[in-house]
Amino acid sequence: MKFPFSIKIAALLVLLLGVHCGGFAQNGVTFLQYEGKEGPGKGKHIVLVAGDDEYRSEESMPMLAKLLSERHGFKTTVLFPIEPSTGNVVPNYQNNIPGLEHLKTADLMIMLIRFRELPDEQTKHIEDFLKAGKPIIGLRTSTHAFAYQKNKTSPYFKWSWNGKEADWEKGFGKVIFGETWVNHHGIHAKEGCRALIDGVQEMNDHPILRGVNDIWVPEDVYGIQGLPQNATVLVHGQSTAGMNDKAPVMWEKSVMPIAWTKPYQLDGGKPGMAFASTMGSSMGFQSEDMRRLVVNASFYLLGMGERITPDLSMEIVGDYKPTMFGFDTFRKGMKVADFK
Fold first, then answer.
1. Which CATH superfamily hosts domain 31-339?
2. What is the Cβ-side half-sphere exposure of residue 23, based on CA atoms within 13 angstroms?
3. I want to staple 301 with a disulfide (CB 3.0 to 4.6 A). Which of 135, 191, 317, 329 is the partner?
């Protein structure tokens, strides 16, 4: 049967509309995406990956994404750990972060993940991103981002935080960021962390620290055993005797690096640059200068250090009421759209 030309055109329009709506529907279903407003980041794409079961990155990453998009012009995409059977955001579901293919168009990746064992086809997107030598920011538990326990034949088994394979000793965190999981240097959930901004005098004029004057976060100081010589420590941290910003610094304890840069290069890949901080809980991001530290690092790693000024806006877009960190304290039954 032959159809009139007008019907064929109508059918084609319906098909195209369906494709468009189907693609759009995924924004808010498996990822969140914000088109950049006007700002110096216009034309740049940042992918933020949440996936830890304690520090509520599913709350902080959308907040950062909106700040980077609304205040500074970056296009941002946020990915989440999603339980396939329910479609819910479940931070302790360690085997699924859909949407990592967005890294193909990303200029920068920001991650806060912990002990993930993703399908190889998902992890490969991260590997491809790193082999391209693109910059990456790792927060808090990203030093121990991967823990392969079931799929020991995976090519990414060596990425495990306690890996032993030659050239991958101590896994992804050590190779990319310079450290893996060591210990809680501070007393977890009892001591906070005060950033010693003036602790490294020669770093005071570093673009990442421009305008960063005071950071206190409720997450304790992580132990750092041995950053490589090519790491540049920007900020040291000291434990505080309590979990509020008025708690005194515990000078009897040794200080630890809490923010640094480090070059990386995967075998067969291009050289890239990483920024890491052992701070990063959703509660910690209530600190304006903690937000400033990460936003500044984003500019710097994207070759925009000259655009960093002390008065860059760090104003949160909309409401931000973070949940206290802890295991199984995440908000149950939440869909991706609920974090919009």
1. Class I glutamine amidotransferase (GATase) domain (3.40.50.880)
2. 5
3. 135
